[in-house]
Amino acid sequence: MRIIIGKTAGFCFGVENAVTKAEEEAKKNKKISCLGELVHNTQVTDELAKKGIKFIDNIEQANKRVIIRSHGVEKQIYDKAKQLGIELVDLTCPKVLHIHKLAQEYSKKGYYIFLIGKKKHPEMIGTVSFCGDYYYVIEDESYINQAIEEFRKTNKEKLLIIAQTTYSLEKFEEIVDKIKENIKENNIEIKNTICNATKQRQEETEKLAKQVGTMIIVGGKHSSNSNKLYELAKKFCKNVMFVETEEELDIEKFDKESVVGIMAGASTPKKSIEKVVEKLTAIC
Ligand code: SF4
Fold first, then answer.
1. What is the pTM of this model?
2. Which atom of ligand 1 is closest in space to residue 225's alpha carbon?
3. Is 96 in the pocket of ligand 1 (CB under 6 A)?
4. Of 16, 47, 60, 123, which residue is the catalytic one?
């Protein structure tokens, strides 16, 4: 069996930074909690819980110090923490903080904002709270007409388009093209805020999926970027498996002749990738 592991598979710098700092906090402070999942990966969350981090879903459940997850939180959480005298260890990825700043800045300048991404994703819930009253979330192409209609109703003249950091680059470009076909004014500012880590993993997944007989995507089932890699791999490879751990591998589908590509989302720990490789190697 030939196994090719993507060079960019696994933790991105934002996740690496958040996990390392959360571990340091756990050593220093036994009563530390984290608001929501630090990253979207069960194995990572379980490891942090073993190290003493308590995961909470409401800031009011926190002790004196609380970690803010890598996807960021709503603006109101910062105000609430101040009000309750809770110190924040803000591990929001700098790329997400940059989007919050853009949203706030352009909203103050009078722009209407189109956010391309999944409405219910924690990152988007956070970003929306920095957009003021004039924004529309475009989940996919089917939302474009309604978004334009809402924009027109406000009589605003300026429009900013931004995206969730883990959105598909291909779909972002398609949506932006469609919007530009319908809004002819020169007042559209487009900021491609999809992060490099996402772009690189998507590009490498496509390249690898074209070369191999089977692709394995390792990642959390609720990880947005891992799901995108899975969708992308399916376009270029007939056999694609999406697994969170090595236990989910369907070993019947492999033999000594198999050529297997492995990619992993930005929140997948190295250990999970290694265990998948070990299991595949054992088949040989
Ligand atoms: S995928 Fe990008 S935005 Fe998300 S944590 Fe990693 S570096 Fe930050």
1. 0.89
2. 1
3. yes
4. 123
Active site residue 25: no
Question: If you take atom 8 of ligand 1, which residue's CA is the nearest one?
Answer: 14
Share in percent of the chain as helix, strand, coil (round to 5) = 50, 20, 35
In total, the chain counts a number of residues equal to 284
Find out whether 67 and 33 touch, Cβ atoms under 8 Å: yes
Question: Residue 213 and residue 33: Cα distance in Å, rounded?
Answer: 44
Question: In order of start, what are the domains of the chain with their CATH numbers?
Answer: 2-10+196-283 (3.40.1010.20), 13-92 (3.40.50.11270), 95-190 (3.40.1010.20)
70 lines ligand 1 (CB under 6 A): yes
- List the chain pLDDT tens, one digit each, 284 residues: 999 999 999 999 999 999 999 999 999 988 899 999 999 999 999 999 999 999 999 999 988 899 999 999 999 999 999 999 999 999 999 999 999 999 999 999 999 999 999 999 999 999 999 999 999 999 999 999 999 999 999 989 999 999 999 998 899 999 999 999 988 766 899 999 999 998 899 999 999 999 999 999 999 998 988 999 999 999 999 999 999 999 999 888 888 888 999 999 999 999 999 999 999 998 77
Shortest-distance atom of ligand 1 to CA 195: 2
What are the helix (H) ranges across 135-269?
144-153, 169-182, 196-211, 224-236
